[in-house]
Amino acid sequence: MEFVKGHGTENDFVVLPDLDDQLDLTVARVQALCDRQRGLGADGVLRVVRSDGESGGKWFMDYRNADGSIAEMCGNGLRVFARYLVDAGHQPQGEFVVATRAGDRTVVTHPDGSVTNDMGPARVTGTSIAAVDGAGIGGFAVDVGNPHLACVTDVPVESFDLTVPPGYDPVVFPHGVNVELINTIGDNALRMRVHERGVGETRSCGTGTVASVASWLAGQGRTTGSATVDVLGGQVYVTIEPMTSTLTGPAVLVARGELDKSWWDALA
Ligand SMILES: N[C@@H](CCC[C@H](N)C(=O)O)C(=O)O
């Protein structure tokens, strides 16, 4: 069984081509694939499935977090997914549509290896508080298809301990939440760290960067704008408009290989 390893600003993924939707991708298999000691190591798995195109997309991105849970959307993963499709010859370079659990998303692959995703609307739904290092930090709840609590703070984001999952209000976020801590570092320039639902701290989160810019704008009473977002693994560029948002950043394919069949079968 073929796999590809890739990353988008060091948010890393195992890509599993399963064009005819044959794989039984159990929680145990996702956990083992993502484990950095007993598997390949990744923040998540991207299963590539050919879709019937009825929803507008010819491809379905089946995204799983490292703990085996299913999430609606993954922004960095979508760029890697698009790069894989072009690299494998399944799509010509340029614009095409990928179906996700959050809806159809248009992607544009660029010759320099970067990808621009249409991320759909970033909806600011209210305010809430994250508990980090024993202190409460206020932020905005932002729905980017998946849930975020994006907190702009004056405390340098480098100073937080994200080895401990941030606390959050389960009434506001009944299905868990991704928590972003954000500093303003210049004109239209942010720095972000993230604790991802189903993973832990990661070096980047694409939907989290979109939520961060939406939250930063909401704090100024704005609903449109753009910013660069520095993350531990690099930099992305986000635009927010009333009806949609975009995310541009690198997508890197690192390795290709074959999973050992007896290892895979033993995990069923
Ligand atoms: N890293 C992703 C987000 C993956 C899903 C997230 N952990 C969740 O459970 O919602 C991204 O780049 O957006």
Automatic annotation (TrEMBL):
<comment type="pathway">
    <text>Amino-acid biosynthesis; L-lysine biosynthesis via DAP pathway; DL-2,6-diaminopimelate from LL-2,6-diaminopimelate: step 1/1.</text>
</comment>
<feature type="site" description="Could be important to modulate the pK values of the two catalytic cysteine residues">
    <location>
        <position position="196"/>
    </location>
</feature>
<comment type="similarity">
    <text>Belongs to the diaminopimelate epimerase family.</text>
</comment>
<feature type="binding site">
    <location>
        <position position="178"/>
    </location>
    <ligand>
        <name>substrate</name>
    </ligand>
</feature>
<feature type="active site" description="Proton acceptor">
    <location>
        <position position="205"/>
    </location>
</feature>
<dbReference type="InterPro" id="IPR001653">
    <property type="entry name" value="DAP_epimerase_DapF"/>
</dbReference>
<feature type="site" description="Could be important to modulate the pK values of the two catalytic cysteine residues">
    <location>
        <position position="148"/>
    </location>
</feature>
<keyword id="KW-0963">Cytoplasm</keyword>
<dbReference type="GO" id="GO:0009089">
    <property type="term" value="P:lysine biosynthetic process via diaminopimelate"/>
</dbReference>
<keyword id="KW-0028">Amino-acid biosynthesis</keyword>
<comment type="function">
    <text>Catalyzes the stereoinversion of LL-2,6-diaminopimelate (L,L-DAP) to meso-diaminopimelate (meso-DAP), a precursor of L-lysine and an essential component of the bacterial peptidoglycan.</text>
</comment>
<feature type="binding site">
    <location>
        <begin position="75"/>
        <end position="76"/>
    </location>
    <ligand>
        <name>substrate</name>
    </ligand>
</feature>
<feature type="binding site">
    <location>
        <begin position="206"/>
        <end position="207"/>
    </location>
    <ligand>
        <name>substrate</name>
    </ligand>
</feature>
<keyword id="KW-0413">Isomerase</keyword>
<feature type="binding site">
    <location>
        <position position="65"/>
    </location>
    <ligand>
        <name>substrate</name>
    </ligand>
</feature>
<feature type="binding site">
    <location>
        <position position="11"/>
    </location>
    <ligand>
        <name>substrate</name>
    </ligand>
</feature>
<protein>
    <recommendedName>
        <fullName>Diaminopimelate epimerase</fullName>
        <ecNumber>5.1.1.7</ecNumber>
    </recommendedName>
</protein>
<dbReference type="GO" id="GO:0008837">
    <property type="term" value="F:diaminopimelate epimerase activity"/>
</dbReference>
<dbReference type="GO" id="GO:0005829">
    <property type="term" value="C:cytosol"/>
</dbReference>
<feature type="active site">
    <location>
        <position position="74"/>
    </location>
</feature>
<dbReference type="Pfam" id="PF01678">
    <property type="entry name" value="DAP_epimerase"/>
</dbReference>
<feature type="binding site">
    <location>
        <begin position="196"/>
        <end position="197"/>
    </location>
    <ligand>
        <name>substrate</name>
    </ligand>
</feature>
<feature type="active site" description="Proton donor">
    <location>
        <position position="74"/>
    </location>
</feature>
<feature type="binding site">
    <location>
        <position position="146"/>
    </location>
    <ligand>
        <name>substrate</name>
    </ligand>
</feature>
<keyword id="KW-0457">Lysine biosynthesis</keyword>
<dbReference type="InterPro" id="IPR018510">
    <property type="entry name" value="DAP_epimerase_AS"/>
</dbReference>
<comment type="subunit">
    <text>Homodimer.</text>
</comment>
